[in-house]
Amino acid sequence: MKTLKLALAAALTMPTMSIFAEEAESDHSVSYNVGLFSEYVFRGYTQTHNDPALQGGVDYEHSSGFYLGLWASNISWLRDAEQSDSGHSLEVDVYGGYAGEFGETGIGYDVGFLQYFYPGELKTGQAAANTLELYAGLSYKDLAVTYYEVMTEDAWTWGNSVAGGLPDSAKGTYYWSVDYDHDVGQYMGIDGLTASLHYGRQEFEGNAHDPYSYSDYLVGLDKEVMGLNVGYNFTTTNQSKTTWGKVDGKYLGESRHIFYVAKEF
Asked: Any alpha helices (H) in 8-97, and if so which ranges?
């Protein structure tokens, strides 16, 4: 469940071409990323339940704005919730889309798909964990707004499980977020120091799932140190403890302090 910045920092920056360049830039680019996190939190909800996460991915971009990506992380939430018969220690995300800018307005756009895979065998009668979302985003300078909507009948084990005697599809479940990333180091004479603010709203489709809808919040700092990104995120939600899940005495939507070190190359 990678929180995509939707390439709003990279894919929206179209390569500039000069007729005076001695060597033309390639229309294709590939980048890689890897990170070690003290915990994996997605939309305010822990995926590894206080355990660290090793994450990494690869991204392909074309100068036209088209991009594809693959990303993976260890998880434990399906096993923690006792919904798994075997496997489910890994999340693999495949995503792709098109990003660009409206003329020379500085307003960027990004549209695409995001497929979440959770390899393993679920318990009999359990709604599927694999989920497909479509998304669309707009950005201007340091601000980005993104909307995601579930296209599958099941999503993260929500969906066609029996609820109140009737199946309740997860299709139409949506999430929207507002993200702001700003170079605060410029005011303190510190190179490579970025602050992040995030607000998100998760709305579940279906009467049986509606009580679980919630908002999540994030405040973070990221510093480039010797070619690495070292950072801290504080995440929390407004999820009611009367409805949210609980594992080993800790609510999965509670406040979390996340530390990480990451590298992009």
From this structure: 77-80
Judged on CB neighbours under 10 Å (0-12, 13-18, 19+), 52 is middle
In degrees to the nearest 10, what's the CA dihedral of 40, 45, 49, 50?
60
Highest CATH level, class, for 32-264: mainly beta
Degrees to nearest 5, angle at CA 51 with 242 and 223? 105
Closest to 255 measured CA to CA, from 44, 3, 1: 44
- Check if the beta carbon of residue 256 is closer than 8 Å to that of residue 229: no
- Within 10 Å of residue 18's Cβ, how many Cβ atoms? 8
What is the rounded radius of gyration, in angstroms, for the C-alpha atoms of the chain?
19
Q: How far is CA 127 from CA 42, 78, 88, 262, in A?
A: 20, 12, 14, 34
The per-residue pLDDT for 161 is: 60
Residue 70 β-bridge partners:
58, 94
Which of helix, strand or coil describes residue 210?
A: helix
Q: Give the CA dihedral 122, 125, 126, 130, nearest 10 degrees.
A: 70
Domain ranges for the chain, please list them: 32-264
Q: What is the pLDDT of residue 232?
A: 98
Is 0.70 topped by the overall pTM? yes
Distant-in-sequence, close-in-space partners of 1: CB < 8 Å, separation ≥ 6:
42, 43, 47, 91, 93, 116, 156
CB 74 within 8 A of CB 100: no
What's phi and psi for 158, nearest 5 deg? -90, 150
Model pLDDT, residue 228:
97
The pLDDT score that the predictor gives to residue 243 is 62
Which amino acid is present at 68?
A: L
- Which residues on adjacent β-strands are paired with residue 214? 202
Asked whether the beta carbons of 198 and 249 are under 8 A apart, the reply is no
Q: What pLDDT score was predicted for residue 246?
A: 67
Q: Which residues, given as ranges, of the chain have pLDDT below 50?
A: 1-23, 163-166
